[in-house]
């Protein structure tokens, strides 16, 4: 045994005290541990391991800065001790600094290669960082040290699987399973291990072997999940092409006759799909509908598989049943059929005919139909016409339905949706609020109202409405919703702040969304050990795959793109923060609210200080406490010197999941940030990918021209890359006009060409004329396109902004987006004061 260094060696008494210190820390007797550490340090003030342990105890007691300083000092005093590096790694892990924590654990393993605790923590960190090669080595070491623990066998198999070595994962499990003896019946851990083994066999294409293992272990009840057995067996039999597959899928349908996955498996076994119309597939589904008369799924699937008159007869029967039952979600159920124009027209014809029939039947006292059937028919027709863009017709039908039954919340909420689609966000908010007033206890209607108020830019009113269902002791409804990780609220409020001209507040909300995703990624750390202990192997692997693509979710993509756009605007306009600071004077009401919140926060701190503490509450945890927000307005965030670096960090995860035409915006945002950071090759690559996805995209066109204008300052090697994106023998003006000719009917392209003229420094009159081309002729222009054009005219300080607003106001009759500020102020006042019966709604206070 090697001799301990002089600084680390302790006399027997102090060595015993150090062991006691370790035990006291493990049992979280922190005060006793601190006293014990002080006793050792009194005689040996430079004992690095004790200093580190004292620092760790202080961190747990809430004295974080003091504790970390002691840990660092202890590391410097004893660089060859595995304990000091282990403690340092624990501190870094608590700070979510996983890369540095792993480095510390690696250092600890240099001096204590077979420490089980350090190896186990290192394996979790390697999984968190997706360092699967190193993970395999660590898991192999753990298995070698403790081969009697089956958790280590399974963990090594999982490591091989995550590293892409499915054959090695299978071999490890086979070795493990061959050593088992006297396994108790109905052992859940053994069941999960066998299911994972069967999954490995299936992925390797060894279907016969997988089926054999499945059957033998299901008969012996070694696999306790009967549903998983049935589903896996049906899937394997289908891949083997055996006649027993049909019976296996049929057994699953008998168990759950409304599961679409089972119907997909049943039909695929016979060579059919759920979406492609086929007489043979239709006959199969019809037989299943007859066999399971109470199941809805086969009846709905028959609409996918039928065409022509057969579709009409089946669709009418399906629609009539739903209307008689009064199913509000009927349109959502039928909406996917609208991809086929013939089916869309057939549904319109059927529902219009039913409308006439029910109108006649309900008009006479002796009619055979219920009045509610006619009501739901009107509701369905309104949804149909609104989806086709015929908003006036939809509103007429809704008005008729409201005259029939003015107390149905669904009518008011959908009227709000129609108005929203037509560009009347204020009217939409008023209608949804009318629905909320009908049932003040309905949380869904409350949330819907808050959402629509935010879309109308009414942030304060939305906060009051949402506050009716949030915690009363929270500092604000928004703070509670942020703690609850409500993405809907954060994104909608961010858009509202942008709409109201407060990009700093919008940026705070977008970054809150980013923080939530950081927390979701951090939360998976605890499962690396938990899932292996509980042997939930298949669920664990699915979770890791899901976490790998989590940044591709729509809410993160939306927040990242919008935040990066604000960061770029702050970089392009250094005076932005100053201008926002000068216009951010608080109103008297806002000042009172801020003062009240400050008093409440001070009171909460005093109560916390005066509250009696017990031993059970001494441990503050190793993670840093959330600090008070010293930038509530987001001005410091917006004015930070590294805005482009922050934008790049936001966009970096998106580049790994950006696929298809929908990701053009991602690559354009990457270009915007990279070109301003001087990362020309990255910008060139991003723009190339964007153009490869959609060469005619208006956003791509603007950036290609932007890159061409920067060409003179680029290196010769980079200019070769520019030539691949831009035709070298065409002038920029000609290139712009040629693009407009190709995309003449596309409103976004017209605006893109106007933006290019602005980049070229064209006269303001010429840019104005290009924007006004949007309203010329029969070009299909939506409200959102017109709003973007109006914002563009405002950004270039056009003298024709008011003229364009008035023209859009006349063109979009239902929209309030183009009303004057005075008209909008009047309409805004009516949003929260009109009930469904035209009366005043009671004041809404949280």
TrEMBL record:
Name of the featured protein: NMDA receptor-regulated protein 1a
Basic and acidic residues composition-biased segments: 604-629
Origin organism lineage: Eukaryota, Fungi, Dikarya, Basidiomycota, Agaricomycotina
Start and end residues of each stretch annotated as Disordered: 601-637
SMART domains according to UniProt: TPR
GO cellular component: NatA complex
Record's keyword terms, sorted: Coiled coil, Receptor, Repeat, TPR repeat
Pfam families the UniProt entry points to: NatA_aux_su (PF12569), TPR_8 (PF13181)
Alphabetical list of InterPro entries matching this protein: NatA_aux_su, TPR-like_helical_dom_sf, TPR_rpt
Recorded superkingdom: Eukaryota
Coiled-coil regions listed in the entry: 95-122
TPR repeat intervals: 82-115, 375-408
